Amino acid sequence: MSDAPPTSPETEARVRASYARQSLMTTLGAELTEVRSGEVTITAPILPLARQQHDVGHAGLAFSIGDTAAGYAALTLMPAEAEVMTVEMKINLLAPASGDRLVAIGRVIRPGRRIMVVAGDVWAETGDQRRHVAMLQGTMIPV
Amino acid sequence: MSDAPPTSPETEARVRASYARQSLMTTLGAELTEVRSGEVTITAPILPLARQQHDVGHAGLAFSIGDTAAGYAALTLMPAEAEVMTVEMKINLLAPASGDRLVAIGRVIRPGRRIMVVAGDVWAETGDQRRHVAMLQGTMIPV
Amino acid sequence: MSDAPPTSPETEARVRASYARQSLMTTLGAELTEVRSGEVTITAPILPLARQQHDVGHAGLAFSIGDTAAGYAALTLMPAEAEVMTVEMKINLLAPASGDRLVAIGRVIRPGRRIMVVAGDVWAETGDQRRHVAMLQGTMIPV
Amino acid sequence: MSDAPPTSPETEARVRASYARQSLMTTLGAELTEVRSGEVTITAPILPLARQQHDVGHAGLAFSIGDTAAGYAALTLMPAEAEVMTVEMKINLLAPASGDRLVAIGRVIRPGRRIMVVAGDVWAETGDQRRHVAMLQGTMIPV
């Protein structure tokens, strides 16, 4: 489905090892479902513990998985010893986060040695339908 | 400490009742520590369940409490029957979220009938010192 | 080249009439080169009067044409009597704005009655090559 | 009026020399009215050549002077040989840009060696009154 090229097994292992240390992803039930070169997908249920006052997913849930997907997309294009940090991220919320699950796709728009510009989209899936619930645009740096 | 005027008991009760329904805030251990007119403070520990790969608070933690504080700041200035929704939010991360606790202060920059422009700051406190860890700027609407 | 459907002659005329009143676009030499449904293209030279200190296009040039393209993209999907206003816009700058001309494409991501989420890209063209110089994400409202 | 400390004559001269090369500022009639350490003020008329369709200042005008003020605020805190570049900037528009003149104040929120987080406000002044018309938050880097 994705046009992004595959990444190397070493890079995928590096991303997965780092992701496994993010306790917030575990708390949210979020899984790293695809690691490609410059594009990472995270899938999360909308757990009862991650809701806002109307009982749909909190903006912080969409942000957290979107930001993380975008950050690891950047990491796939960084040198092997680098780690990634979010400099800034903007999210526009398009629709309530309700449905069976959220799928966040992060991708690198412009890889740079000092600065990586990234983007992300979050979709809510219900059965075989999906709705666009959030859109992100941000900046990552290697640390 | 704050210059913001107090809010009415009815408004504070309305904000607290809505906040209590946000399960993500409960999950993060976040408490609504102050409700003033146009300014709301949320305090959260940096729980082991809300970390990123370097074991400091995840960007999603700072975002979640900053966005929520800004949203409820907007709600204090909305009509009694209104609820608040985030249209968009941007966060710049200034320093790692480590320390005893995070304190997020959200405030209304420009109240409008259709659109409320809000801002927020997140501080990490350790003992009696604090460090500025994030800055947010966004838009809320009544729904 | 674009997948966006054509717009009606009435809508195109409405967009062009409004655009013609934007003196900043005239000052910048910017032309409305395509009006489709939910997608508008503006083309501008990088005039000597619109540069920054390194003699390439100012961030304000890329912002101005990107914001305007996104705003008119939103207007194509609004009721006939509406006018459009920018609520907020974020721009990430990807590369210096140098070359023969800039081309800004604005598009609607999510049309809503109260809020329209828009995005834009700005490209620098030199001969038959183009470079991605800026990316925008924002919010428009009908007024 | 400002709490920001004064800058050195060398730094002010460096900022003014760079600003003088920004042709867009000249086109907009914008003047560098104050250079302090980490805080820069630019004042601009709302020229007939910089308007949008309702004959008030274009969002691109507020953005251009706000971004430039924030960039030079960052430059005051950079090493003598550095130049400054905008990585990203977000603007929320609060009110129409009408009045006698616009005043943009840019300031550094967090100076860093690699990344500077900046903010800005744009005010419209009419007689001795002023109205908050825009608020900016962004990232600058030395180049």
From TrEMBL, chains A, B, C, D:
CDD domains: PaaI_thioesterase (cd03443). It comes from the Bacteria. Pfam families: 4HBT. One of its GO terms (molecular function) is fatty acyl-CoA hydrolase activity. Residues 58-128 form the Thioesterase domain. Keywords: Hydrolase. Its EC number is 3.1.2.20. InterPro entries: HotDog_dom_sf (IPR029069), PAAI_dom (IPR003736), Thioestr_dom (IPR006683). It catalyses: a medium-chain fatty acyl-CoA + H2O = a medium-chain fatty acid + CoA + H(+); a long-chain fatty acyl-CoA + H2O = a long-chain fatty acid + CoA + H(+); a fatty acyl-CoA + H2O = a fatty acid + CoA + H(+). Belongs to the YigI thioesterase family. This is Medium/long-chain acyl-CoA thioesterase YigI.
